[in-house]
Design brief:
β1, α1 and β2 form a beta-alpha-beta unit. Strands 1, 2, 3, 4, 5, 6, 7, 8 and 9 form a nine-stranded mixed sheet that branches. The protein has twelve helices and nine strands. The longest helix is centred in the last third of the chain and has 26 residues. With 304 residues, the chain is α/β, with parallel strands linked by helices.
Length: 304
């Protein structure tokens, strides 16, 4: 059985479509675990209506605790040998689960990720780049970019290794979760075909805002602390440290600072606050490091 975990909060206009896309999969041995994170709209009634006709939908309500807590509860309630996630405003292709599961079983893998469409307004583009070769390093360097819905993985991975989403954190908790998942997995495979549609929110804080820089930096420091405590090889430790501090943290700072619309004085304040991270930027990520250097120079010119 495959469990599709869907967290939702006041998304009654979208969640029905998401749930139905999961229930109507060509692979039938499936359950949909819907975690209602304290919705005050008509989500509960709509889910009960669907559940009366299809008992594979399991609905659970909790007081509002955030998406991380909702996903954690969903995993704990899931009965499937495999788990996948679905955001409540996104939609799966009808054969998403079947195609990923076939690829996973054929290769005796623990994890399968798939390509996907990113829809922004009236435009769409493919979201997955990179390969699962050197998966952890490429994930840290942002060369491998599976969105949360793209994963199908064995339930034993999180159960046996105590992997949960960090609760109380509304940004980056998925990256921390999947870094740990990749660390403990034995083998991963990928499907190049786009198997779901991800609706990108251009109105919220995730769109070029400075509001979550602090959480970004915090999460990546926590990821590094965890990796450092679990890595036994010194060369491997140095490789991942450079990936995070030589590229990933400087990149998230520079790109967001370069695109924000705030006053120069505000941006200068952030540059000063995070200068210790910006100064660690190196050339460990090839052409991406070169592009980042150009972005950094552009930012410095803007602040003159």
């Amino acid at each position: 059985m495959v469990s599709v975990v869907i967290p939702t909060y006041n998304r009654e206009d979208y969640v029905v479509r998401a749930v139905e896309s999961a229930l109507h999969q060509t692979y039938r041995d499936i359950e949909v675990v819907l975690i209602d994170d304290g919705s005050t709209d008509d989500t509960a009634r709509k889910m009960h209506d669907i559940g009366r006709n299809d008992h594979r939908l399991k609905y659970f309500f909790q007081e509002n605790k955030g998406v991380a807590a909702a996903r954690n509860l969903g995993m704990q309630k899931a009965n499937g040998e495999y788990i996948s996630f679905l955001d409540s405003d996104d939609v799966l292709e009808p054969d998403k689960i079947e195609e990923q599961l076939q690829e996973l079983l054929k290769n005796q893998a623990d994890v399968c990720v798939c390509n996907y469409w990113i829809v922004t307004g009236n435009k769409r583009r493919l979201g997955l780049r990179g390969s699962v070769k050197n998966f952890l390093l490429h994930y840290l360097q942002n060369k491998m970019t599976p969105q949360t819905n793209a994963w199908l993985f064995k339930s034993t991975l999180w159960k046996e290794n105590g992997i949960f989403f960090r609760e109380g954190c509304s940004w980056g908790e998925d990256m921390e979760f999947f870094v740990k998942l990749i660390f403990f997995m034995k083998k991963a495979v990928s499907v190049d075909r786009p198997l779901f549609t991800y609706q990108q929110d251009t109105q919220g804080l995730s769109a070029a805002s400075l509001a979550k820089l602090e959480q970004d930096v915090f999460i990546w420091n926590e990821i590094w602390k965890w990796l450092k405590s679990n890595i036994k090889d010194a060369d491997e430790e140095n490789l991942y440290e450079r990936a995070i501090f030589g590229y990933r943290i400087p990149a998230l700072l520079i790109y967001r600072l370069n695109r924000c619309k705030d006053e120069k004085s505000v941006v200068r304040g952030f540059v000063k606050q995070y200068r210790s991270y910006l100064s660690k930027r190196d050339w460990s990520n090839g052409l991406r490091s070169l592009k980042l250097a150009m972005e950094w120079n552009h930012l410095r010119l803007k602040l003159l």
